[in-house]
Amino acid sequence: MKIEMYSNPILYNLCTNNKKDDIPFYLYWANHCKGNILEIASGTGRIAEPLISAGYKYTGLDLSKKFIKFSQKNLLKGDFIYGDMRNFSLDQEFDLIIIPFNSFLHLLIEKDMKSCLKSIQKHLSVNGLFIIDIFIPDPEFLYRNPQKKYKEMTITHPTEGKYTIWQTSQFDELKEINHICWLFENEGNDIIYEYDFDMRMIYPDTMDRLLIESGFIINEKKGDYNGDSFNEESPLQLYICSKK
Ligand SMILES: C[S@@+](CC[C@H](N)C(=O)[O-])C[C@H]1O[C@@H](n2cnc3c(N)ncnc32)[C@H](O)[C@@H]1O
Fold first, then answer.
1. Is the Cβ atom of 242 under 6 angstroms away from ligand 1?
2. CATH of the domain at 126
3. For 69-115, how does the pLDDT look when each residue is reduced to its tens digit (9 = 90+)?
């Protein structure tokens, strides 16, 4: 059965439960900025929860109505708004705007990336910071055999039992889009769910250009959540930006 992961908070949480390495990074920058925070593509509140618990005034924006409902129900002190990062208007400015965990890579064409950055500009306070977190395209991943399935993770569903998640992918070089499929295999070796999604691969020079053309100053470029500067071995592109 085809599924849409971003309409399924339980499955999404099971698949992202182990992702915790970015939390101290966002808590650090929240403390640095002190003011109110906007998270673009806030999901089910994975990052919202620690920020709200630490006492920050938090707003999350997401395109999934199910995720927004789930967050509103579970994180009463946060403000969760349904909206599209490509064009949003909240009538409010923020001191810290973040777009964590590769969410920006869901924008597949440059026009959408630029309109998202434009909306972010409009909502950033004069001295505010904007942080974007995306991975670096990895040839080992992009040029995998499209016929082969690679093990991604295992999860234990509360009612359905254990699933092994396999991944297949096909990279479109021209469009720089990786077409990815996750196959959820149960203990009887049946594929129960299939989840297709696309991710735009963005190389550092492109991200630099997009930010600069969209009116941002790149204050710092980190290569990991420990705050190491970006270098040839960095797994991530973490941009700390301000308004021009
Ligand atoms: C990888 S998840 C990240 C969620 C959360 N930030 C986290 O770190 O767990 C990507 C999120 O992007 C959201 N999303 C995708 N396209 C979007 C768009 N155009 N506008 C707003 N949210 C979008 C999805 O609904 C999903 O919640």
1. no
2. 3.40.50.150
3. 999 999 999 999 999 999 999 999 999 999 999 999 999 999 999 99
Cα 71 to ligand 1 centre (Å): 13
Q: How far is the CA of 84 from the centre of ligand 1 (A)?
A: 9
103 Cα: distance to centroid of ligand 1 (angstroms): 5
33 and 69 assigned to the same domain: yes
Name the pTM for this structure: 0.97
Q: Whose CA is nearest to atom 4 of ligand 1?
A: 43
| Residue range of the domain that includes 150 | 139-200
Rounded CA separation 182/3 (Å): 10
The sheet carrying 236-243 orders its strands as 79-82, 58-62, 37-40, 94-99, 124-135, 236-243, 216-222
